[in-house]
Structure formats: C-alpha cells, structure tokens
Amino acid sequence: MKFSLNLIVLIAVFQLNVLSQSQPIIFGATDAKPVDLVNVFLGSSGDHGQMSPAASYPFSMLSIGPQTYPKTHTGYEYLAKKFEGFTHNRFEGVGCQGSGGNIFIKPFLGEDPMRSELIKTSEKASPGFYSVEFENKIKVQLAVLHAAGKHAYQFPRGKKGFYLDLGYAFNGAFVEEQHRINGNSVSGWIISKTTCGVGKYKIFYNLTVAGSSKWKESGDHKLLLMLPEEASNAQIDIALSSVSAEAAKLAIHKRTFEQVKMQSATDWNKALSKISVSGNEESAKLFYSLLYRTMQSPYVISESNGEYRNTKGELKKDKQVRYNGWAIWDNYRTQLPLLSIIDQDKYAGMVTSIADLYNSGKKDYAGQTEPSNTVRSEHAIVVLLDAYRKGYPVDFAKIADSLEKEVKGLDYKSPDKALESSYDNWALSEIYKVLRNTEKAELYKNKALEYKTYWNKDFKDLRKNDVDRMQARGLYQGTIWQYRWFVPYDFKGLIELDGGEQSYLAHLDEFFERDLYNHANEPDLQVPLMYNVTKQGYKSQYWMHQLAADTVIQNYFNDNSRGIGSFIGKIYKNEPQAYLRTMDDDAGAMSAWYVFTASGFSPACVGWPVYYLNVPLFPSLTYQLPKGKTLKIETENFDLKNKYIKAVFLNGKPFNKNYITQEEINAGGVMKIVASPTPIKESKTENWISKIE
C-alpha cells in the first residue's frame, strides 16, 4: 500500500513537471523589459534579412559593428569566425550588397596588424551594445548613445596597437577623405558612395584613443597607433556628424563606458515600450526583435544647436530635428506608417525632412552631396499626403512646383512603372484638392486614371505564358501576376477592370492557391489585405495570420528567381537565418509589416489614414500615444488557431467596420477583437475601399 501511494505521488509530480514544461512562458511588459527580449542577431546570417548585431541607437547614423570574413551586406556574417575589424556605419537590411562601412579599425597584437588574426571564440549583444572575445585574448566591447560611442578593449601584455583605415568602405564605395592628426585624436571627413553607388554622402568624425600614444601615418589613408606594452586596457571615443568635425568632437561622451551602455539600453527600452505586448514570451521576443529593426533609420542629421546640412550640402539651422537616410520606395508601405503612430514627435521631424528634399532638389535616388548614407525616395509625395491626412503639418504650397516637376518626370516605360507613377499622380491630385486648385486636381486625377489603359494592356489578360515569369515585359522585381494588384489608390476601379467582384475574387483566390504571392519583396505586399474590399474579408484575416505566424509555400525570391527549391516554412523566425532566402528587411519595411499584423491592423492605402483589421497575434497589446493616451487591443477567445474576426468592440460599443482610422487610434481607448476558429462569411461590416471616382 505504501509503495502504491509513493508511486501515485511520483506519477503526479512527473505529470505536473511535464505540464509545466509544455506551458509557454507568459511575458508582460509591466513586469519585464522589452529591451531584454531583443535578439540583435536575428537576420544576420546569409541572405535572410541583411541585418547586423552592431551597437546602435534609435535613428543614429553611428552604428559600431564587427567586420567579418566572409561578410554579408552589413559587413557581418553570424557563422563567420574570422574578424577583420570594426566599422562605424551601415544601412540595415537594404540591397545592392549594402553600404557604409566607414572608419575601419582593427586591434592587433605584435607590430604588424596584417599578421594579427582575430578569431572569434564568443560574442554577445543587445540594443546599443556589442562584445566579442578572440582566441588571442583580445576582448572588445562597443556601445553607442546618440551620435557618439565607445570602444573598450582588454589586451594581453606585449606589443599591441590599433590599425585605422579611413579609405575603407563596403563594396569599394570610398571616394575621398581628409583628416587631421592631433596626438591621440584623428578628425576629418569622408566621402563615400551611397547605397547602390548612385550618389555620394559626406560624414564628419572625431576619434580619440585614451592615453598619451600618438597616431602615425602609414600611407594610403591608413594610420597606426602603438599602445604601451604593459597596457591591459584601451578605450576609443568616436562621434559622427553631418555638420563638421568640430560638432563631432563636441558630441563625444564624458561618461564612462558602463554609463553609456546603460543609458543606451534605457533609451532603447523606452523606444520599444511604445508598444506593450502580453502573451507568449517566445512570440514577444520575435515581436520586439522586429520592432527594434523599425528604429534604425532614417538618421538624425541635426546637432543639438539645430544645425544640419541639406542634400545640397548647405549648412542650415532649424528648431526641428532633421533626418536623412531614406528607403522610402520600400518602407513607405509599413515602416513610416508605423512610426507615424508610435513615434509621433520624431515622425513630425521626418515629415518636415522629406518635404525639405523638394526644397533642395529631390531625386529618386541619392544626390551627390547627401549628409548621410541613403537609398531611394520614390513615393515621397504619397508619404507627405498620408502625413497631412494624419494631422502632421505639411506646407504643400511651398513645394507644389517641385512636386509637380517630379510627377511630370515620372517613368511609364514598363508596366510596373506605369502603375507606380499613377500612384504619385493620384497623390498630387489630392494635394491640389488640399490647395483648392480644382483645375490641377482634375488634371492629375485624369492622369492617374490613365493607369486603366496600362492595366488593360498588360495586366488584364492572364492567359499569356509570361504572366508568372519574373521580370517579364521589363518588370523590375516581380511578375505580371504580382504587379497587377498595385492599384492601392483605386481598388474600386480595379474591381471594375477585372470584370466585377466575382471575377476579382476568383483571380485573388487563384493567386494564393497557386502560391504566386512573393513575400520576399514588396511589390505585392498589400495583396493579402485586398479581400477586405469585398464581402470575403475573412480571407484577408486568414492570409495575414498565415504569412505572419504559420507555414507558407514560397516560390518567388528577391533575386528574380522562381521555383528552384521552393521554401516551405515560417517567414518570420527569431534566429540568424530569419527570413526567406534573399528576403531583405529593407530598412525595417518587412519588420514593420509583422509588427502591424501582430497588432491587429495594417495600412489599407498609404495616402489615406485607414488600417484594415485582423486578429492580433497576442492576447493583449497597448500602444502608447501622445497626451498620455493609450490604445489597448484585447483579443477575446485568443488562440493561434482562431484566425477570424467574429466581432469588434471599441470602448465597449459594437464597432461595425473592417477598418480603424488614425484619428480613432490617436483617441485611445480599448478595442476588443473577438476571435473565431471559423470564418464569418456573412459579415455586415462597413468595408473601406479606395476609389478615385
């Protein structure tokens, strides 16, 4: 009897132990810090995001990161053991083999830096901080706060020093530099080619090694500094500026390394806490790791006294913080709309900075005198319209001539460009409505409506044998199937062109059933939302959930390939090989897509302050808003199997719409989404649909 009782107790304990192990750990932002959940190594291996673990600060042009051999776009490969040194800027997640990599520095042992190898034995990193240890006993810690940062080194006894290459940049992008040595300090400026090598940017810097050692020229933009043989520690201070080397010197921190590291972590935690999630801890780790990626660029280019340089290189001054470093062609769809909600003070400066591009001669790609690294700015006009309708001040009258000049120069040579250009024509028409210029509003509305001619010519007939072929008919990155949906400004007109709602739905169904959708790139990123303009909005709820959190089949890739070993699995994973093969994060665009979807709403059409609803990926999320307001989003019947919306309540009242507006978000309150495992096929919600006429 005694044996049986003990056995029963053991079985009960075992069952409890198994149960406790199978239950997910629950995370709540009220009793834990989001900054502690961020995995900065996400997407840092191979071509699976093009991200790096560099020490960074929200929207700072300075990011201090390791340079490995071999490397990826950001100079780093997670699996690499051999390190070449450290660099001080990079554009996260963009294509064209990446850019940045200025001010290369290598710690070395002995007298010859080329003979001193850095082989990784361990590393760790978190927002604002990176550290690594090498086989030769050199230990390195990096921290960044605002536009300045610190290196902290531990060395073994013996001969040692630092090797500095001011002519280094990723992909041979270095153009020229000028520097001045003042004992242990080096300061000056560097000009490099921007992302994709289209334009040039100029940055100023100041770099100082603590102690009495002196930098010495070794030719060809290279310098050496030997440390005392008995020294076991060394520290480097560095700061960047778009204004001057003197401004960079003033930005150098007087704080200790630990103080810089701790303050950076505190500031990152404040930024990440703009959204509080409660739920499965592993899901929260993925969420905050991606939210972190949405805050890398654009870069602050103004100093504390308000000075900055515009894209002409001219020195200006303004009270509002200015930004540069744009990837608008990619992230206007998701990242910028996200910042318009969660970082409204900073976003006001970004909007002003985008408008200012038109005052200094905006180009689609970079100019020759950029104040920071940058990529592309197509659809900036759409972003400005979107910002204005969200309540941000935009002086359209001041830049109207420049907006019109840009739109008049748009390209219609290929089918995709014709649809893209029509989007900007629509935006200009809406802006002229704001300016009460009915004549020009009508002119550009009719110009936008010409998309129908292009659509009928190339996108209507899906029987041709090239409609699922990448780059057919001169398309840039995509297929006829993928680009045919790019009419976000006139879904009503698109449905009519496609033969009515039933035909439109049949084509949408075929698109997804044949796995023609491409999440590795942006051209069809809005398509999962496009059931929302019909009576079958539940299919959008299904696909948003599927793409964000479940298994998908992916046949298309960002290198314009198709079908060579289809990907089957989850797109978003919290690991170094995070994304689909060839999928770039594109300066936070893809990360922001996930953050929106996980939150339960996504932009319906940039240019209108409207967001379509879906079931969130957490039981509860809270958005921190201006004036102390919050929007709490609760999911009733939460379960990852419950993908469909049964009902919605806003502040306790039935909310019979399939969308929410920016005004409603900013008003705050509590939105409750009741989830269901089965679709609600007879929904009576008010459905928002874009339309030109």
Largest sheet: 10 strands, antiparallel
Q: Quick one: overall form?
A: globular
Helix proportion range: 25-40%
CATH architecture of the largest domain: 2-Layer Sandwich
Q: What is the rounded Rg?
A: 26 Å
CATH topology of the largest domain: GH92 mannosidase fold
Q: What distance lies between the first and last C-alpha atoms, to the nearest angstrom?
A: 84 Å
Domain Glycosyl hydrolase family: 251-674
Domain Glycosyl hydrolase family 92 N-terminal: 37-208
Cofactor: Ca(2+)
GO cellular component, one term: cytosol
Fold blueprint:
Elements: H1 2-22, E1 26-28, E2 65-69, E3 82-87, E4 104-109, E5 118-126, E6 129-134, E7 139-145, E8 148-154, E9 160-165, E10 174-182, E11 185-193, E12 200-209, E13 216-219, E14 222-227, E15 233-241, H2 245-251, H3 257-272, E16 275-280, H4 281-293, E17 299-300, E18 307-309, E19 315-317, E20 323-324, H5 328-331, H6 335-342, H7 344-357, H8 380-389, H9 396-408, H10 415-434, H11 438-449, H12 451-458, H13 480-483, H14 491-497, H15 501-513, H16 538-549, E21 552-556, E22 562-569, H17 589-599, E23 601-603, E24 610-613, E25 620-624, E26 630-636, E27 644-650, E28 653-654, E29 659-661, H18 662-667, E30 669-676
Helix pairs in contact: 4-17, 6-7, 9-10, 10-11, 10-12
Task: Tell me what you see in this structure.
This protein is an alpha+beta fold and 693 residues long. It has 2 domains: 239 residues, Beta-galactosidase, Chain A, domain 5, CATH 2.70.98; 366 residues, GH92 mannosidase fold (2-Layer Sandwich), CATH 3.30.2080. Helices cover 29% and strands 25% of the residues. It contains 18 helices and 30 strands. The strands form 7 sheets. Strands 2-3-5-6-7-8-15-12-11-10 form a 10-stranded antiparallel sheet, with helices on one face. The chain has a 7-stranded mixed sheet with strand order 1-16-25-26-30-27-28. Strands 4-9-14-13 form a 4-stranded antiparallel sheet, with no helix packed on it. The protein is globular and about 80 Å long.
